[in-house]
Amino acid sequence: MSIHISIWLTNPVVRSWNASEEHKKNLEKLLPECTVSLHKNAQSFKANLINTDIALVWVFNQKWLKLTPKLKWIATPSAGKDWFNLDAPKEIVISYGAFHGRIIAESVIGAILGFIRGLYFASQFQDKYLWPREEIEPYCSTLRGSHLVILGYGKIGNWIAQLAKPFGAKITGVKRTLINRPDFFDKNDKIITIDDLDSILPEADHLILALPRDTSTDNIIDKRRLELLPNQCYIYNIGRGNAINEEDLANALKKNIIKGAYLDVFKEEPLVINSPLRNCPNILITPHSSAIAPNLLDLFIEEFVDRYKKWKLGNTNMVM
C-alpha cells in the first residue's frame, strides 16, 4: 500500500520556508513508492488528513489528530523540540530538523569575523568619522589562535566547530555528558561537561550558545557567569532565548564587562521595542534568522528521505 505524504510548509514572511512544486517533485523522485500532495493553506491540508500517513509541516493543531486515522509520523523542519505542544498517541512519531547546523554555523562565523575584523564597527563609525582607522583598530583581532567555547555541543555546535577549525581556532565543547572528541579536533581542543563550565569561561574569546529550551538552561548565562568572562570576549546566542538573562547581558555590555554580542534568539519574540538590549553598544541583533537560506527545505527533504528509509526498516529511533 502506498504511503501518502502531505506537505504543508508555508510562511508569510520568509519565502525560503515555503514548499514549492519543485520540492514535491523532488520528494516523489526520491521516494517513488510514495504519493505526495502539496498544500498551500490549512483548509486544504486538513481536508486531506484523512488520507495522510506522514505530514511535513511547520504547525500542527492538537484538534487535527482526530482527523488523522492513518497518521504515523509528523515531521517539521524546526530544530527545537519545544516547537510542537502536541499530546499525540505514542504510535505517532514526531521528528525535528537536525540539518540546520551547516547554515547556522555560517551565521556564527560571519558574526565572529564581522566583530574581530572590524567590519561591524566600520559600519557603526562610517557616518561619524571620515576615515575611522584609529577607531576601528582596538576591535581588530584574528580568529586564528582564539578560543571558542561552544555551550551546547550538539549537531549545531559541531558544525560551528568544523567551520572554525580551518581558521586555526581552539575549540572547547560543553555538554551535559562527555563524548569522544571529534576527528577534526587537534590536541588543544576538548569536550568538557557543564560541571566544568565556570572553569573554562575565563579563557573564552568567543562564547557560543547552541542550547535547547528547557528548565535546566534557563538563565544559564547570568551576571555571575558574565563576570567570569574576560572583557575581550564576545557572546553569541543562536539556540534559545531563555539561556541568557537579558537584563544582566545588557548591563554587562553597557559596563564593558564583555566586548560585544550577537543575538538571534530572545526570551520574547519579536524582541520588544523597549528591551534594554536595543540600546546596548556593540550588539548585533537579528530576527531569529540565522538558519534562513534558499536551500533550507532542500536540506530538510534530504534529511527526511534518509530518515524515511530507516523508518521503513522499523528503526523509529533514527528519525527523532
Structural class estimated from helices and strands: alpha/beta
How do the strands line up in the largest sheet? 8-7-6-9-10-11-12
Tell me the quaternary state. Answer: single chain
CATH class of the largest domain: Alpha Beta
| H/E element order | EHEHEEEHHHEHEEHEHEHEEH
Radius of gyration: 22 Å
Q: CATH superfamily assignment of the largest domain?
A: NAD(P)-binding Rossmann-like Domain
Strand content: 15-25%
CATH hierarchy: architecture of the largest domain: 3-Layer(aba) Sandwich
Summarize the main sheet: 7 strands, parallel
Name the average pLDDT: 96
Spans of at least 5 consecutive residues whose pLDDT stays below 50 are: none
User: Number of helical runs?
Assistant: 10
Distance between the ends: 24 Å
